[in-house]
């Protein structure tokens, strides 16, 4: 009743219409994401408060830095699941991986090694931030040839594409789905990335929204995305992912 005196109460952010987060780093100690099990549980509790019903966490697989295998990831997932069950969290937890496209990834793909996928046999992949691959389109097309659907993580962050943004249309037309980071809608990564995220959404090129949360701060900053006209109105396909 004293809101008039102390200011309006902050409106809680409700992302229940998104249903599923398909990009995060919640398995402790295996990449640059969370480092303790307690931190994992706290973040998953926050996901539940935000309205998410399913979280598919995606540890990095970057062979120069994070030599994560399906066995390492799935073992970590079970530990996180058990800890969340102990405190009564109801969010459904799964795991895939965020594969950095390097020589090791190409070897795994061509060698038929087991890869951890998002629902619908989708592979979440990322590109270098500073230097473009010489054969980006060909590599993504190769993923399709091997029976997977590539999902390109945070395309708005690859600034070398800005000189010729038609590459995004080319990738989408080839069958690559694009996943924007929610924090890109807040200016967290810089105004240029914010503008590119906005352009990709206006062009209708984005399929999925992801948090790419590495720490609690990232989830707390999502409140700033509430001001984005895209967050509540854009037809993200997260809720259409099969179970």
Automatic annotation (TrEMBL):
GO MF: manganese ion binding; protein tyrosine phosphatase activity
Presence of the UniProt keyword Membrane in the record: no
Top EC category: hydrolase
Entry-linked Pfam families: CpsB_CapC
Annotated EC: 3.1.3.48
Keywords: Hydrolase
Reactions that this protein is recorded to catalyse: O-phospho-L-tyrosyl-[protein] + H2O = L-tyrosyl-[protein] + phosphate
Family: Belongs to the metallo-dependent hydrolases superfamily. CpsB/CapC family.
UniProt protein name: protein-tyrosine-phosphatase
Organismal lineage: Bacteria, Pseudomonadati, Bacteroidota, Cytophagia, Cytophagales
């Amino acid at each position: 009743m004293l809101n008039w005196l102390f200011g309006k109460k902050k409106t809680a952010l409700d992302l229940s219409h998104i249903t599923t987060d398909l990009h995060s780093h919640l398995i402790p100690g295996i990449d640059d994401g969370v480092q303790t099990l307690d931190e994992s549980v706290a973040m998953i509790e926050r996901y539940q408060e935000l309205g998410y019903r399913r979280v598919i966490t995606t540890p990095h697989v970057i062979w120069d830095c994070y030599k994560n295998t399906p066995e390492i990831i799935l073992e970590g997932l079970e530990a996180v699941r058990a800890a969340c069950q102990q405190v009564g969290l109801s969010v459904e937890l799964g795991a895939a991986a965020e594969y950095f496209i390097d020589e090791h990834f190409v070897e795994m793909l061509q060698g038929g090694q087991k890869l951890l996928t998002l629902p619908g046999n989708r592979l979440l992949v990322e590109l270098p931030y500073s230097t473009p691959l010489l054969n980006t389109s060909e590599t993504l097309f190769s993923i399709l040839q091997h029976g997977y659907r590539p999902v390109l993580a945070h395309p708005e962050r690859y600034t070398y594409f800005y000189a010729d943004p038609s590459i995004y249309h080319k990738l989408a037309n080839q069958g690559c789905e694009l996943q924007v980071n929610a924090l890109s809608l807040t200016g967290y990564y810089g105004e240029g990335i914010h503008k590119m995220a906005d352009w990709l959404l206006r062009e209708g090129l984005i399929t999925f929204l992801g948090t790419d949360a590495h720490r609690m701060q990232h989830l707390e900053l999502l409140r700033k995305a509430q001001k984005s006209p895209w967050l509540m109105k854009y037809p993200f396909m997260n809720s259409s992912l099969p179970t």
